[in-house]
Design a protein that fits this description.
By secondary structure, the protein is of the alpha/beta class. The chain has two domains: 6-148, 3-Layer(aba) Sandwich (Rossmann fold); 173-297, Rossmann fold, CATH 3.40.50. It is built from twelve helices and 15 strands. The longest helix is centred in the middle third of the chain and has 22 residues, at 150-171. The radius of gyration is 22 Å and the shape is globular. 37% of the residues are buried.
Length: 299
């Protein structure tokens, strides 16, 4: 018998699941799309590490059936089938896994490439957009509603804001520290750093920092020159990466004169805590606050 194309085969719902109490559910995703989920999802694909991390925080690792190539956390998911990576994403690969929910962000054209073909198959797609820490929390709530994990989300979201409030209380009244965060280096004198109005910048500000450099423009790569960093003269220099990358900062031409380098205040910070918008972002606030305001945590 001739095999039909996966992209021409609609998903079939189990009638019993569709009639289960509380289902179907309709919600609005980050793009303002109305998404209806017919039954409690049991085969979920999480595209991008942030979405997998949020799903995992809701206890949904056993329901995950696919990820993209750069997801490394939690460790239990790394051997799951891959549905794409740096070069893009495959609707065919997703369809072969027969998911009943796909979660993605717009990054690397994922939403642009996948929503239309997956919608034709009847596969619900939720697009989440992470702007700041409150938005991350609201995305966790959205995924909880989409998967029937409200109790787990309520427990998680009771604790995370309390931890942020504890940091705010520790550093209350202390002047913000002028900080530069390096997230990448081109090797040619340009350095990546977060834009304003992002979750990473929100982490730095909640930790008691203030950007040493003026805000990056909305257009163009999120990079600054070494000359701009020298002029800004940050009090603390953070490197999202490895210790050897932080040690290299002082060896760059002119960087030995930066206040942060002179005072030995170049620090490594966790990429997963600052650059992946999930529950561990709160860990990032706590760890950066200890670097920026050590005296507030001395006790």
């Amino acid at each position: 018998m001739r095999r039909r194309s996966l992209l021409a085969t609609p998903l079939l719902l189990h009638a019993g699941e569709a009639r289960a109490e509380g289902w179907p559910r309709a919600m609005e995703d980050g793009l303002g799309r109305r998404v209806e989920i017919p039954a409690s999802p049991q085969r979920i694909i999480g595209i991008f590490a942030s979405n997998v991390e949020m799903l995992a925080s809701l206890g949904l690792v056993p329901r995950l059936v696919g990820i993209e190539a750069f997801t490394r956390f939690p460790p239990e998911v790394v051997n799951l089938p891959k549905v794409g990576g740096r070069l893009g994403f495959s609707a065919e690969a997703i369809a072969r896994l027969a998911p009943d929910l796909v979660v993605m962000t717009p990054a690397r054209q994922a939403a642009h490439l996948l929503i239309a073909p997956l919608s034709r198959l009847g596969i619900p797609c939720l697009v989440v957009i992470h702007g700041n820490l409150p938005r991350i929390f609201s995305n966790i709530e959205l995924l909880a509603r989409a998967t029937g994990s409200e109790e787990r989300a309520a427990e998680l979201l009771r604790g995370l804001p309390v931890r942020l409030e504890a940091v705010a209380a520790r550093i209350a009244g202390r002047p913000p520290v002028r900080v530069f965060l390096e997230v990448s280096s081109t090797g040619r004198g340009a350095y990546g750093t977060p834009r304003p109005d992002t979750y990473t910048m929100d982490i730095l500000i909640r930790a008691g920092g203030v950007p040493a450099l003026p805000p990056l423009p909305a257009a163009g790569p999120p990079q600054v020159s070494g000359e701009a960093i020298l002029r800004a003269d940050p009090e603390i220099y953070l490197v999202a990466g490895r210790p050897d990358q932080a040690a290299e900062v002082a060896l760059r031409p002119g960087f030995a004169g930066i206040a942060a380098v002179r005072q030995g205040r170049v620090h490594v910070v966790s990429r997963s805590e600052l650059l992946i918008p999930g529950p561990r972002a709160v860990n990032g606030v706590e760890s950066v606050a200890r670097i920026l305001h050590p005296e507030a945590f001395a006790a």
